[in-house]
Amino acid sequence: MNKREINEIKKQFTPEHCTITRICGCYVDGDKNKKTELAQTFLMLTEEENFKYFTIFKNTLSGAIGKNLLNMEFPTEQEKTGGTQEFLLRLKSSKLEDEKLVEEFYDKVIESYEYGENYYIILIYAAYDVPGRTTDGVENEDASEEVYDYVLCSICPVKLTEAGLCYNEKHNSIESRIRDWLVAPPVHGFLFPAFNDRSTDIHSLLYYTKNSEVLQENFIDKVLGLSTPLSYKAQQETFQDIIENSLGENCDFETVKTIHENLNEYYEARKDAETPPELDKMEIKKLLEDSGVKQASLESFDTAFDNIVCDEEQPKFSAATVASTRSFDIKMPDVVIKVKPERTDLVETRMIDGRQYILIEVNDSVEVNGINVRNVDVETGEIL
Asked: pTM value?
């Protein structure tokens, strides 16, 4: 799913466009005991409760694709009878009205979800009448050809509010605040099936994690039946290791700068595509070729890639994750330089008196600790 498709689903989480018909919930304590459960028609909740749930559901579809939102495909074996995809399909088809199926889902989550404190599992079922679109992108409600029905799962920590004082308006007094259990924003969740190309894709789902480094591998494996992808940081580090090991002694400043520039161009040209841009093994190698990497390094690329990845099912790297779209960072033990990605032309390396220097072109505006300073001619001492 891309950002446009995700936002289209999020727009339903408002009173005017709500397509949610059923909500189920299970409150679990730190010892994995079910404390209380909810199962009812969504619109039977109060208006205030609706708004609070809408916020939770929007948060479950928030963040950056490839970092917080991960597009994942089911292996073929999980689509057979008894597989995780087949179970989720039955859960969706029941519209969450089959109590035994819902309870089985709760049990699967509780068994696999690794969290030592209280949390709240929320499940909703919704049916979205997908409006058609004209060739110029205008929605046409009368041209709908499909109903996209789905389940959304949100897992929210439940935290005890902090002790403190509060103002009691009824008694007009300052009193000790009553501590209660508060449902926090979701930390994990998923949307099934995926809404790819504005259509139902039962072979995929969209996974959400608030912290890109805490993916809940056991939950992904046991409940969803999927291979845990590389985390956001792991993708960056793995990609960097592949580049370093491929280039070897040819890993110089200018080569890396060129790779950075070409990678950013690759991402910018594809960021609005229907499918989020990714790089596989061959595309990374082509990136190196286009960046002028020497033939010796290209020849060592395959070995470097296979030794670092060590996975029969070779991963694809999210271009949004591995491209440095926010800054071009140069780090040394005592100096850190940050450059806008599109202005790497301001930085170059040069040999002066046998020593290598990083040179930065100085323009009209220079600040030192927030103070505007004037440029000085080092030979004459005159202010420029």
From this structure: 0.81
